[in-house]
Amino acid sequence: MNQAKQTSAGLGTGRPIGLIDSGVGGLTVLHECLISLPGEDFLYLGDSGHFPYGTKSREELRQRTADVTRYMLDRGVSLLVVACNSATAAAADSITELAAGEGVDTVTVIGPEAEIAASISDSGRIGVLATPATVSSGAYRKALEGLGRPLEVTEVEAPDLASIIQRGQPFDDEVLDTVRGYCRPLREARVDTLILGCTHYPLVAPMLQRLLGRDVRLVSAGHAIAAVVQRTLAGSGNLAPGDREGGYHFLVTGEVDSFVELGTRFLQLPLVGRVERVDVP
Ligand code: DGL
Fold first, then answer.
1. pLDDT tens, 220-264?
2. 177 exposure class (CB count in 10 Å sphere: 0-12, 13-18, 19+)
3. What DSSP line would sit under 196-241, residue for residue?
4. Ligand 1 in contact with 24 (CB < 6 A)?
5. Residue 201 falls inside a structural domain
6. pLDDT value for 10
7. Rounded distance, CA 240 to CA 31, Å?
8. Are 166 and 100 within one domain?
9. Do 116 and 103 lie in a common domain?
10. What are the phi and psi torsion angles at 67 (to 5°)?
11. Pocket lining: 162 vs ligand 1, CB cutoff 6 Å
12. pLDDT digits (tens, 9 = 90+) for 133-184
């Protein structure tokens, strides 16, 4: 079924920019895109029915992201932003190839944060906090090593952190202790820059900053990705006119109500009436 011409509440009749993530994490990227590109329309898919991605195997992630990519191409997106590090780490090449087959450009995370971190770190001691899928892929290490600067990279897996954030419940001392445990090796390694290697993590930046200390710089993908999207659209002459206010719409494969509640809190924008439950087989 080709739904390319289907429009959704909150969107105009043009082709929207698509973003994909396993849940609410990609909203940290959408947030920056909404600010940098206020005239564009956005269609966000939160694959919350298949959350978490970060503990899935590479093969599972390649299969699932292929299905999700095909679905977004069928919905007629003009550009695809992979707003998920685990998906990028496991399947950036196959997602990009699939989208290119339909003439759609892809923007992925990991590379932009690695570049920022390498350029702002004074000591060259960089930490990466990410899901098991991302750490085991070695994608950050590879990206950092390719930047031509000697760096000491400390990677830490945080198997529970995305789930804690996705649950949306008030943080308690147990959560604080879990996050403290993730920060310990980063403190011991005396990193001066930490890559938040999962798009969920900027949502707990204040907690991480307190546990690591004010001097550690936290690097996340959102701002850099929004700039790449802007350059890509400008390069193809597809930037929306400056006087237009774009729309945004959400697709979720899991529960709608919790997504509306969390998304409204994180984006500080109304989501009611803009979230649609979909099946992505
Ligand atoms: N937000 C995602 C990432 O950047 C995935 C988190 C998860 O589903 O485990 O890795």
1. 999 999 999 999 999 988 899 878 999 999 999 999 999 999 999
2. exposed
3. EESTTGGGGHHHHHHHH-TTSEEE-SHHHHHHHHHHHHHHTT-PPP
4. no
5. yes
6. 67
7. 17
8. no
9. no
10. -65, -45
11. yes
12. 999 999 999 999 999 999 999 999 999 999 999 999 999 999 999 999 999 9
Chain center to CA of 97: 19
Output the CA angle 149-152-155, nearest 5 degrees.
Answer: 125
Asked, for residue 89, whether it belongs to a domain, the answer is yes
- Cα(102) to ligand 1 centroid in Å equals 26
Q: What is the domain extent for residue 40?
A: 17-108+223-277
198 tagged catalytic: yes
Distance from residue 13's CA to the centre of ligand 1 (Å): 31
Out of 19, 84, 136, mutate this one to test ligand 1's pocket (max ligand atoms within 8 Å of CB): namely: 84
Active site residue: 84, 116, 175, 208, which one? 84
Contact 10, 250 (CB under 8 A): no
**51 CA closest ligand 1 atom index:** 8
pTM above 0.70? yes
Is 183 annotated in the active site? no
- Catalytic position from the list 198, 211, 221, 229: 198
Of ligand 1's listed atoms, the one at least distance from the Cα of 89 is 10
* Mean pLDDT over the full length of the chain: 95
Residue 2's pLDDT is: 42
Calpha distance 85→261 (Å, rounded): 23
Count of structural domains within the chain = 2
- Asked whether residue 2 is domain-assigned, the answer is no
Distance (angstroms) between ligand 1 centre and the Cα of 50 equals: 11
